[in-house]
Specification:
This protein is an all-alpha fold. Helices cover 78% and strands 0% of the residues. 23% of the residues are buried.
C-alpha cells in the first residue's frame, strides 16, 4: 500500500522539487549564493519506478532485481533504462547500488541492451515498454492538468 502512494506521488514530487529549485534560483539571483535546499528524493523515485514495472509486468521485485531468466532479465533492463531516463539526478553509481550493487558499467550495458532490443523490435521488450510507458503517462497526466 505504501509503495502505491509513492508511485502516485512521483509526478507531484518532481513538480514540487522543480518549484523549490526555481525558488532557490530566484533567491540566489536576488541575494547571492546563500540559499541551500537539499532534498533527497532520488531513491523514492527509483522505488516508485521499480514498483511500477513490477506491478505492470506482474514480476516480483525480488525477481526484477535478482532474476536470471526470461522475463525477469528483460524487465530489469527496462527498469534500469526507465530509472536512468526518468529519475533526474540519479547517477549511474546510485542506480547500480539500487540494482543489487551493480557496477556503473553494468548499468550502461543494461541500457544499451534495452536500446538494442527496442531497435531490433523485440516483441516482448516492446510490449513491456509500452505497458510501462502507458502506466507512467497515466500517472503524469492528472498532475499536469492541475498545474
Amino acid at each position: 500500500m505504501k509503495s502505491d502512494n509513492i508511485i502516485k506521488m512521483l509526478p507531484l514530487t518532481a513538480k514540487i522539487l522543480n518549484r523549490i529549485e526555481k525558488f532557490k534560483e530566484e533567491m540566489n539571483k536576488e541575494f547571492g549564493e546563500f540559499i541551500t535546499v537539499e532534498v533527497e528524493y532520488t531513491n523514492y523515485q527509483i522505488d516508485a519506478l521499480v514498483k511500477l514495472v513490477s506491478d505492470v509486468l506482474h514480476i516480483t521485485i525480488t525477481d526484477l532485481l535478482k532474476g536470471k531468466k526470461g522475463d525477469a532479465v528483460l524487465a530489469r533492463h527496462l527498469a534500469v533504462y526507465l530509472v536512468h531516463e526518468y529519475v533526474e539526478g540519479a547517477t549511474l553509481k546510485q542506480i547500480g547500488e539500487y540494482f543489487m550493487d551493480k557496477h556503473h558499467s553494468t548499468i550502461i550495458n543494461s541500457c544499451n541492451v534495452f536500446k538494442d532490443l527496442m531497435d531490433s523490435k523485440n516483441e516482448k521488450m516492446m510490449d513491456f515498454y509500452n505497458r510501462c510507458n502507458n502506466a507512467i503517462t497515466q500517472l503524469i497526466q492528472p498532475c499536469e492538468q492541475h498545474t
